[in-house]
Amino acid sequence: MRNRGIGRGRMFMGGLLLLAAILTWGIGLMMSPHGATVAKGTQHVRSVIVTYMLKDAVGTLILCAISAWLLFPSRRPKWPARDWTLIAVLVFLAGSSVYTLIWLQTSVLG
C-alpha cells in the first residue's frame, strides 16, 4: 500500500497558495498608481498605495515560490500540459511582480 495522501496534500496546498498569489497580484494591479494626474486633495494617498504595492509584489513573489515548491515535488504525476501551464503562470506572476518592484523604484519613488 502506498501513501499518496502527502502528494495530494502538497498539490492541494500548492494550488491554494497559487490561487492566493493570483488574488494578491490582481488586487495590487487594481490599486496601481499609474498616471501623473491626481484628484485634488488625494496626493497623500499615493504614498500609501505605493507602499502597499511594494509589499504586495514581495508577497506575490513569496507565495509563488512556496507554491512552486509544493507543486513540483521530486516525484510527481507526469502531466506535461499541467506542468507547463503552472510554469507559465508562475513565471508571469513572478515577472510582473519584479517589474512592479523595478517600476515603483524608478518612476514613482525615484
Describe the structure.
The structure is a single chain. With 110 residues, the chain is mainly alpha-helical. It has one domain. The chain is 76% helix and 0% strand. Helix 2 packs antiparallel against helix 3. The radius of gyration is 18 Å and the shape is elongated. The relative contact order is 0.16. The mean pLDDT is 84.
Short description:
This protein has 110 residues and is mainly α. The chain contains 3 helices and no strands.
User: Number of domains in the coordinates?
Assistant: 1
- Number of H- or I-type helical stretches: 3
| Secondary-structure element string | HHH
Oligomer: single chain
Percentage beta strand: under 5%
- N- and C-termini, Cα separation: 60 Å
- The level of helicity is over 70%
- Overall radius of gyration: 18 Å
Any idea what the shape is? elongated
Low-confidence stretches: none
How many strand segments? Answer: 0
The main β sheet shows up as:
none
Mean pLDDT over the residues = 84
Structural class designation: mainly alpha
List keywords for this structure.
single chain, 110 residues, 0% strand, elongated
Write the layout of secondary structure elements.
Blueprint: H1 5-30, H2 43-71, H3 80-108
Helix pairs in contact: 1-2, 2-3
